[in-house]
UniProtKB/TrEMBL annotation:
PROSITE patterns: RT_POL (PS50878)
Reverse transcriptase domain ranges (all copies): 92-349
GO annotation, biological process: DNA biosynthetic process
Top-rank taxon: Eukaryota
UniProt xrefs under SUPFAM superfamilies: DNA/RNA polymerases
Organism: Petrolisthes manimaculis
InterPro entries documented for this protein: DNA/RNA_pol_sf, RT_dom
Protein name: Reverse transcriptase domain-containing protein
Amino acid sequence: MNDVLVDDPTLMADQFVSAFASVFITEHLPNPFPHQTCPETISTVVFFPSDVKTQLLSLKTDSAMGPDNLHPRMLKECASQLAYPLYLIFRSSLSLGYVPAKWKISHVTPIYKKGSRCDPLNYRPISLTPIPCKSLERLVSKALFGFLQDNLILDDSQHGFRAERAVSDQLILTYNLVTLWYDQGSTVNLILFDFVKAFDRVHHQTLLDKLQSVGISGNLLQWIKSFLLDRSMRVSVGGSLSNNVPITSGVPQGSVLGPLLFLIYVNYIGSSLTCKYMMFADDLKLFLHHPGDPSSPASAILQFNIDTLAATASSWELKFAPGKCVHLCFRRGLGGPFNHEYYLDGIVLNQASSHKDLGVMVDNKLRFHPHIRQT
């Protein structure tokens, strides 16, 4: 704190909560998003007491309690007695489009990632939210996923948080294409993008506009709005809690519904691109192949797509970290390395000989030697 190390748990908790809150964005008038691009709508979620009981019985009894101090073991062992009362509460919450204030409080535990342990931003905020709310979220999420999949709304290039899709699927699709083009003698340029705190920078009104554009309406849209707004968090360190801090942007960390809401938020980020792209949640890559040495038109096309992607992300209050974005060039033949420079927000992208992509170290000769040496 003020360049002075502290070891008091309360002061540490306050420092962490201030650091985590610093990445939020403040409300402003966003660019309008086109409404009702999907002819179908979903305005409510249908479920029964038996569905609530199933949710309670699926709880893991070794999970931690939420801020409401309701233990999952108690909820699970009393599932038969609690299913109908909770069903009435859930149904009332959805019909009124209202999420109780106590369900919108998160208790956050900082988990170290990498870098200096003295920097709070080198810790990942792991949130605990009330378990009854998460049970309702699962019912809502199931209905929303079904609606989105039935109407083919989700971008097919997106593999994150989706059933029957995994990291390995996306990697196989990506490098099968890269290998195919590489074996044909093409030059393949792959740009790996790194978002800055993407889940925390989701602009709430823009997200609500996008939800409406894909057909989410009525009480369900109002419920999601209530779910998003007026949230708060406290950080727990050594048994001490920080001050309560409002959450002004982002999808709720630690929630069940948050990942799906994020997928909807970034769903059309590639709609104006002319290059092929792939996504896994907030990991995004785009690539372009062309025969032989790259021509000026090919380089210009890739730069245009980088600029287009950056402009789209910026209009949605998302931004990239240019210093962490990487250019990999896969190229056969003589002539030395291809040193064409690509720019993101005026900063030259680092051209690497190898880089980690979704946990796999990839080199520009497709030999995977760096990954093998690390395992």
